[in-house]
Hints:
Layout: H1 2-32, E1 39-43, E2 46-50, E3 53-62, E4 65-69, E5 74-79, E6 86-87, E7 92-96, H2 99-134, H3 140-174, E8 176-178, E9 183-185, E10 195-196, E11 206-211, E12 216-223, H4 224-231, H5 237-244, E13 250-255, E14 263-270, E15 280-287, E16 299-305, E17 310-316, E18 321-323, E19 326-332, E20 338-349, E21 352-357, E22 365-368, E23 380-383, H6 393-405
Parallel strand pairs: 1-23
Antiparallel strand pairs: 1-22, 2-17, 3-12, 3-16, 4-11, 5-7, 5-10, 6-9, 7-8, 9-11, 12-15, 13-14, 13-16, 14-15, 17-21, 18-19, 19-20, 20-21
Helix pairs in contact: 2-3, 4-5
Amino acid sequence: MVIVTAARPAAALVIAAALSGLTGCGEAQKQSSAPPPPTVTVAKPVERTVVDQDEYVGRFVAVDSVEIRSRVSGYLSEIHFTDGQTVKRGDLLFLIDHKPFQIVLDQMRANLAQARANLAYTEADLARGQELVRNKTMTEQVFDQRKQAKSVAEAAVASQEAMVHQAELDLNDYSELRAPVDGRIGDRRVSVGNLVTGGNGSNTTLLATIVSVDPIRFEFTFDEASYLRYQRFAGTTANTQMANGQGGVPITVKLIDEPDFAHTGTMDFVDNVIDRSSGTIRGRAVLANSAGLFTPGMFGRIRVPGSPPHTTLLIPDAAIGTEQSRKYVLVADDGNVIRLKYVTPAQLDDGMRVIKDGLDASDRVVVNGLMRARPGMKATVQEQAAPPASSSPKEAKKDSAQTKAE
């Protein structure tokens, strides 16, 4: 019994030692399998002088838009254009049957000849009366009647000359409808042989429409607060012109299927009244359109200068993350620990994203390895020079795609 009792503590010691060895091996194995800190690339923000850009939605409108209507009534005899073609000012478009107008002109010329013959007779009669009244063989009353007859004949000649001129206009000008402006004509609204109603009333016949193509205008509206901001830009000539509706303010435009604001133009007008129902005011820009890409009625987005030039920080667009409605960046502190900072981004500038608020010039922003880094995690940091100012949006998108792949 004594021997058995002595053996039990020894066995317990052996079991404890074995368990201790197993525990030590597990801890060592766990330590050897811990992952190394993630490797990230950081860069400091770029400091650059920029101008904030305001974006608005607008629509293209033609500088000139003309409805082709006839001044005279008649039957349409000829059409001298193809639907949708480009026309020059003075090109013949429509021809109304000349024959009725030629008849009227001939009649007016005959009436004019009659009036001139009557005038010649009254002039001769008056000349004879002057001798008779000097010789006292004609009374003053009869002489005055001859003078009045001559005046009436002169008025009749003037009236007939005016009617001849009107008939010539109807025949040579108004019955031939020509393009009043350069531009692109739409489709014909009336076919040959139809009666065209002319004149100045509201029931005149619409024959076609012409819109100018080059240059073209872009109209948009902006709110009252923006208008006041433009008014209060101190010492910025361009924005003073913007608020006063003067030309010269550079703008850029992009179409609905374009990624960049590639089309340039200038502001040429700002309205003088704010719309009371919407609280907005109308602005207008003009752009060259020699290629005919822009069409009246087409939608687009416009960028106009929204601030005086100021110095700000820019980072690659790929370095910005999204947390619900907030934007953030990851930065590495002095101990290479990843920290999260919420920022207020603005527009892209030469492939870099402008940061309005939330970032310091000394921050080391994570620009590569975003998927591996987590806030509070220590990382292996590699310094990288800031992207050059000339980096294009295409390069920024390429970097963004590479980061997401990692």
